[in-house]
Input
Amino acid sequence: MKGSSFLSILCIALPLPSLAQEQVKVWVVRADKPGMAVASEIDMYLDGKKIPEPDYEKVGNTEHRFTLETCTDKITFKVARISHQYQYEDKFYPCDTPEVQIPVRMYAYAAYVYQHFGDSESSRTQGPLNLGVSWTSAEADPDLYVVPYADRLQATLAAPEAIGAALGETGEKNQAALLEALEGGDFGAVSFYANENAALALQAGNRLLSTRYGTLSYDAGFRDMGVDPAVADLPLVANDEARDIYVMTPEGEQIMEQYHLQSGRSAPATWSSTTTLQLMMDGTTASRQRGLEQLRSTEELRAYQIPGTPDKM
Output
C-alpha cells in the first residue's frame, strides 16, 4: 500500500512531456498569380543550420508540411530547388503559422512564351514532361517545362539603351525590334534579331552575351517552326555541360535542315542568318504557339512537316 502511494506521488511529481505540436505549410507561389503554387523543394533551418531530416510531409509537388514543437524566429525555410523559369529572392524565410509563402516570378521570356503558348488547352493534355532541370514531377504545373533555360535569357531582354551601351547603335536597334517582335508573338523575328545581336556580341568580345542571344535565337526559331524545343525525350536545344552553354542538338540540326528542304531550299550547315532571315520573312506565327508539336522520337522527327511548307523532301 505504501509502495503504491509512493509510485502515485512520483508519477504526479514528474513533468509530462509536451504533446503540443504545430504544422507549418510552406509553399512557393507565383507573385503575378496569387494562389498558383509552383513545384519546388524546400529546406528547413535552425539557427542558420540545415536540418537534415525534419518531421516533414510533401503533398503533391508544391505543398510542404513541417511539424514543429514551436514555430520560433530561430526556424527558417529556404528554396532548395526550383525550375530555372523562376526568379526569387535567395534568402531565409522566417517560420510563421499557419503558412509561409515564398513569392517567385517568371523570367520575362518564359512569361512571354507562356502568354502565347503555355495557357492553351493542348499544352495541358500532353502528359508529364521533364522540367529540363535536375528533377522532375509528373504532377508539375504545366507551364514549368516551357523554357528550362529562361534564367539565362534574361540578359537578352534588357532595355535597348542598355544593349546599345554594349553593342552600339546597331545592337540597340536590333534590341528594340526584338522586344517589339516578342511582344507581338513573332518568334521568327525574335530569332533573327537575337542571332544578329549574337554576332555583334561575339565581335565585341562578349562571348557570354553572344551565347545567351544564340540560345534565344534557337529557341524562338524552333517555336516559329511549330515545335517545342525543350521536350525532355528529344530536346532540340540542350546544355553542353563541358562548356555550360546551351547548343543546338543533332535533332535540332535535323529540324533546321527539314525546314529548308521542305521549302525547296538547300540547307545550311549551321544556324545562321540564312535560317533566321527566312523565318522572319515567313511572317508572324503567334498562332502556332498554341499546341506546339512535341516530338519524342527520331521517327516523329523525320515525319514532321513544318507548318506552311510544301513537302518537297
